[in-house]
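Exercise 7b. Backbone tokens:
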């Protein structure tokens, strides 16, 4: 089931989004902002766009023993994206661009690549606050650009802050 959902994500992202382009209205319905705790329970450790049970397009994840680091992960890139260079991804909300230098990692199970950046939680606070207050974000990547809805991000990101921020 999980592999089927991941394949659906790959198809959705490649055919309908060209990295970050908006999918058709019918395909947008399953994408929703959500947060989740670890398998052990407790406070939220992840927040982002969820497609059924799998995070897709972008999500945040707590890192580190003190849960004081955060990773921002962008998913669904071509498997052949260069792994030995840094890739710039921009998230623009209400006229403010947030630029991230990301590294590529192949996801063998899904046959695609994710771009990620990790830093102390406070590094991401301006982006998180803008996302909580905004309606839409434009994402620009090495493979294209598009928009995502931020509806529901306020609650999901507030739960992430409660679980991850120092």
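Sequence design result:
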């Amino acid at each position: 089931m999980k592999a089927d959902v991941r394949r659906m994500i790959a198809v959705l992202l490649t055919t309908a989004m060209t990295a970050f382009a908006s999918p058709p209205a019918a395909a947008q319905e399953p994408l929703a902002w959500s947060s989740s705790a670890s398998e052990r329970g407790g406070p939220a450790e992840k927040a982002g766009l969820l497609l059924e049970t799998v995070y897709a397009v972008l999500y945040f994840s707590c890192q580190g023993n003190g849960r004081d680091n955060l990773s921002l992960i962008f998913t669904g890139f071509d498997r052949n994206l260069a792994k030995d260079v840094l890739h710039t991804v921009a998230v623009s909300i209400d006229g403010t661009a947030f630029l991230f230098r990301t590294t590529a990692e192949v996801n063998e199970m899904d046959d695609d690549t994710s771009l990620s950046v990790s830093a102390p939680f406070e590094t991401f606070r301006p982006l998180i606050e803008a996302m909580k207050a905004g309606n839409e974000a434009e994402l620009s990547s090495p493979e294209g650009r598009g928009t995502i809805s931020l509806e529901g991000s306020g609650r999901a990101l507030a739960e992430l802050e409660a679980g991850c921020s120092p």
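Instructor comment: Confidence is low (pLDDT under 50) at residues 1-28. The domain at 2-164 is CATH 2.60.40 (Immunoglobulin-like).
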